[in-house]
Every structure is written in C-alpha cells, then in structure tokens.
From TrEMBL:
Belongs to the ComF/GntX family. InterPro entries: ComF/GntX_DNA_util-trans, DZR_2, PRTase-like, PRTase_dom. Pfam families: DZR_2, Pribosyltran. SUPFAM superfamilies: PRTase-like (SSF53271). Residues 148-244 form the Phosphoribosyltransferase domain. This is Phosphoribosyltransferase domain-containing protein. Residues 23-71 form the Double zinc ribbon domain.
Length: 246
C-alpha cells in the first residue's frame, strides 16, 4: 500500500501542469499550465507555410519556389527554416521575450519550430550541432539573458526524443559590440555586422545549424556562415522562430 501511495503521489506531481488551468496568454481562455498559449491560438499564428526554398522569406502562394533575390544570387547559407512569418502576434510575442524577459512565451513558439524541423529533416541528414547566434558581453549584461541560447536549449529538449542534437556554444564569439540591427537599412546592417564575429578555434564540423530568434535581411547569419565556410564547414542551415519579408 505504501508503494502504491508513493507511486500515485509521483504520478500526480508529474501531471499537475496538465490538471491546473491558467488563462491563455493571448486570448485569456482556459488552458493547461503546461500550455501557456492555447491550441486555438497556436493554430491561428502565422505559420511559415509558403516561403522561398533557399532564404526562407515569405512569398505569395502563386509564386515560384525561389524569391527574385535568390534567383539572381544564392545566399551564403544553404537553407533557412522558420516556424513563423514575422507578423502579429508573433512579432509581439518575440519582443516580449527579448526586451521584457517574458520567457514563458518561448516554449510554445519553439514547439512549432521543432515540428517544422522534424518535418523537413524526416529521412534526411541532420546538422551535427546547433550554433546559437551569440550576444556581445555588453548586450548580455544589459539584457540579462541570451535569447538565442535559451531557444537552443529548449529546441534540444524538444528534439531529444527524435533526434539528439549537440549544442555548440564556444565555437564562435561576438567580438564587436554592434548597434541593434532593427531599424537599420540593408546596407547599414551589412556594415554594422561586418567583422563582428570570430572563431575560437578550427571547426570540427562539416554541417552546422545557426539558430536565431528572428532573421530579417540575413546579414548576421550570413556573416557567421562565411566565417564558418572559410574554415572548412561544408554546409550551414539557418533555423529561426520567425522570418521577415525583407
């Protein structure tokens, strides 16, 4: 009897998040504690279902597989996978995460990115490791956390039952404190991010995934990609929660 009671107690603790209801962070409807955004709101988010097959920017439903820019010139990276288009309310949620430390919004968004990746890589070779875009130490101190690193850890946890991913956090360093890319013109973004990163050693990988919360013009991830490929990395995929229509 004692063992049965103990087992029941453990079971209840493990399922407590499913039994207690809270208000959905978006619509305020009841939702289990382990799902802070309800299923209806998740389904209503702007999922990136029609996009350029290389750079990942949203394109019209009747458009070709590649955007006009990729037809003219392929990006430095090999492909970009995003969970969502950078539209309301995803843009609002990402700002809450990044600038207001509302990390409770991150798991439901990361869950959709996990589904996107599992669908794409089904039967294909996965990258050898995830490389989150690093913050400069000055930005890290002011913000208090690295959103790309937090996202990477959540993603590794989500993918673990299906694919064990290595998290690489020491290969690349942000050596230059840059202005925020948001609000800069495309040409300014390129100058701003140039030589912002450096490698701490020779990469021991042939295939990597660079992870960031949002990809806009792609200059940040392209700069890192060029650095990696110059040192022998053969393929670089980009993973992000949201992709903006450049």
């Amino acid at each position: 009897m004692r063992q049965l009671l103990k087992r029941n107690s453990v079971y209840k603790r493990l399922n407590i998040n499913q039994l207690i209801s809270i208000s959905c962070l978006l619509c305020r409807a009841d939702t289990p504690m382990n799902k802070p955004v309800c299923n209806l709101c998740i389904q209503a988010l702007p999922i990136a279902d029609k996009h350029c097959l290389l750079c990942g920017i949203p394109v019209l439903a009747n458009s070709s597989d590649l955007c006009a820019r990729c037809v003219q010139k392929k990006p430095a990276f090999d492909i970009c996978h995003s969970a969502f288009n950078y539209e309301f309310p995803v843009d609002h949620l990402l700002k809450k995460i990044k600038y207001h430390q509302q990390l409770i919004y991150l798991p439901p968004l990361a869950e959709q990115l996990s589904r996107t990746l599992l669908h794409h890589y089904d039967g294909k070779v996965w990258p050898q490791a995830i490389l989150p875009v690093p913050l400069h130490n000055k930005r890290l101190r002011s913000r208090g956390f690295d959103q790309a690193l937090v996202l990477a850890r959540q993603l590794v946890k989500n993918l673990h039952p299906y694919q064990q991913m290595k998290l690489e956090t020491h290969l690349i360093k942000r050596q230059k404190h840059t202005d925020p890319q948001q609000g800069l013109q495309a040409s300014q973004r390129k100058r701003n991010i140039k030589n912002a990163f450096s490698l701490t050693g020779t990469p021991d990988y042939q295939y990597l995934a660079i992870l960031d919360d949002v990809v806009t013009t792609g200059e940040t991830v392209s700069e890192i990609t060029r650095l990696l490929k110059q040192q022998g990395v053969k393929r670089v995929d980009i993973w992000c929660l949201a992709r903006t229509p450049v």
